[in-house]
Amino acid sequence: MAHYLDNAATTPVRQEAAQAALEAMTEGWGNPSARYDLGTRAAERLKEWRAEVALGFGCLPEEVFFTSCGTESDNWAIQAAVELNKRKGKHIVTTAIEHSAVLEPCRALERQGYEVTYLQPGRDGTISPEAVAAALREDTVLVSMMLVNNELGTILPVAEAARAIRAAGCPALLHCDAVQGFLKVPFTPKELGVDFLSISGHKIHAPKGIGAMYVRKGLNIQPMIRGGGQESGLRSGTEPTSQIAALAAAVKAGRETLEADLRHMADLKAYAVERLTVSVPGLRVLTEGSAPHILPITLPGYKSEVVVRFLSDLGIYVSSGSACHKGKPSHVFAALNLPKKERDGVLRVSFSYDTTREDVDALAQGLEQAGRQLFTALS
Q: In degrees, to the nearest 5, what angle opens at C-alpha 202 toward C-alphas 199 and 208?
């Protein structure tokens, strides 16, 4: 029996989403731009799916734009923000623990002459609101801050950043990567005070290949893709209706059971902290964070990649950090300035609505076995 505990990397597609995709592919497969009946029915369904995702966001349907993934949404938001504010300055504020989908566009902008301030986290992985306020300048045109860190589970002060921007009177637009926060931490874009917000379908039990971006009404942004004028002329290309249908179904299902799911994950995380620290000698919880679904731990003296492979052979799946690192050292854990032994032994455990205590028990047993059978590193 497999025990999957890497839901921050990706989630299994839930039945409601798979069924919605199948129906869109086999019954409602018309092109929404076509002017005959099959197309107009597809266009109507597209309108319904957009409204469903907007309900999940807590925003207007016309503020929702479909993309291929969270990375595209992040890139588009950053590019759109600096383009809108290009005459107001060339300074950007972000954090050192953002996803690469934010850091890499910021680094590209640095090569184009922008100055980027990378806020450093505390040892607990948090960013202080005071640090955000202190970094703002008259020429700050963008602040990009994730809602939940994908490796630590810490919640960042996005709403406080919005208030600081207003108080400072600087022209900065605020973008939030909410890929790990959507349906994990209750929010609306208005409550956060953001101008742009990004999500990814495969983090909430929809398929890979679909994401969405919130754009505050009234922002006149430039098109991401030019062509036939889909997505209100901002992202041309025939809409991937089956993926959009699946995303809407996953959002609807997740929204309906949100409170129960959040309680379940929080209870499971608390159980995991107790079970793992008692059962596995030397194991340390790096931070319990605030999000209910991510728990970073470390086995000091052991190499995380070796432990991940050992657990995999037992049918237990966790990660050594973000799946996007592909084996490279995590910039997030590096930013915490952990001792090398702790940094080398980091594992990320992440939960979902269908994770069980039996999964946690299997992990505890697997880690205990790893501690007995694996040699510690000499580092």
A: 110
